[in-house]
Amino acid sequence: MLEARALSCVREDRLLFKDLSFSVDEGQILQIEGPNGVGKTSLFRLLAGLQPAYAGDVFWHDHAIASIREQFYQQLLFLGHYTGVKPELTAFENLRFFQKMHNPTQQQDLWAVLAQVGLAGYEDLLSSQLSAGQQRRVALARLWLSDANIWLLDEPFTAIDKKGVKVLEQLFLKHAARGGRVILTTHQDLQLDNQMFSTLSLRKPAPEQQYV
Ligand SMILES: Nc1ncnc2c1ncn2[C@@H]1O[C@H](COP(=O)(O)OP(=O)(O)OP(=O)(O)O)[C@@H](O)[C@H]1O
C-alpha cells in the first residue's frame, strides 16, 4: 500500500494543501485533478520523496519512504515534466540507455517497444530532431520496460495525440490488472471504464488559510 498520511505542502509561505490523506492499493489507477497551480506537481514531488512535506509523510507498506529509500525507488517509475530524454542520443539509444541502467538483464525487443509507441521508422533519428510529442513518446516507452510497481506520471499525455492516449490508457489498465499502481495527473478526461480507476481533486485552501 502506498499511503499519503495527513500531508501538508507549503511553497514560499503559501499553503497549497493541508491534511491530505489517501492510499493507492495494488491494481489502482488514481488521477489527481485540479486547476493550474493547485499543487499537483508539488504533491508528486512529495510522493516521489524528492521533497519533504511541511507536515505528514508518505508511506510504502507502512514505512516512511525516507527510511526505505532504496527499496522504494526500486518500485517507483517517476515521469515528470522534464522527460530526461537525451537530445544527443537517438530514440533507440535513449531506450537502450534506460534499459541498461534499470533493467540490464531484460531481453525485451526495443524496436518492438518503439513501434508500440508509434516511433517505427524514427528509431535512428537524434531525439533533438523529433517533435515534442515524439520525444514524449520516447520517454513513455520506458513504461513498457518497467518492472516498477508504482508509476507516478505527471501529465503523461502532454503533446500526445488521441491515438497515443488510447494506447497509454490500455497500458495503464494492463499494469493495474497485474497488480501495479498508476498515479497520474492530466487535464484530459480519461476513458477508463474500470472499477480500479478513481480521481482525487485538489482544491485551493480558503483565502484565510493560504498563508502559514
Ligand atoms: N520551485 C518552486 N518554488 C516556489 N514555488 C513554487 C515552485 N514550484 C511551484 N511553486 C508554486 O507552487 C504552486 C503549485 O505549483 P504546482 O506546479 O505544484 O501546481 P500544479 O497543480 O502542478 O500546476 P499545473 O497544472 O499548472 O502543472 C504554484 O503556485 C507555484 O507558483
Automatic annotation (TrEMBL):
Pfam families: ABC_tran. SMART domains: AAA. One of its GO terms (biological process) is cytochrome complex assembly. InterPro entries: AAA+_ATPase, ABC_transporter-like_ATP-bd, ABC_transporter-like_CS, ABC_transptr_haem_export_CcmA, P-loop_NTPase. Signal peptide: none annotated. The keyword Membrane applies. Residues 2-212 form the ABC transporter domain. GO terms for molecular function: ATP binding; ATP hydrolysis activity; transmembrane transporter activity. Keywords: ATP-binding, Cytochrome c-type biogenesis, Membrane, Nucleotide-binding, Translocase, Transport. PROSITE patterns: ABC_TRANSPORTER_1 (PS00211), ABC_TRANSPORTER_2 (PS50893). The keyword Repeat does not apply. This is Cytochrome c biogenesis heme-transporting ATPase CcmA. It comes from Motilimonas pumila.
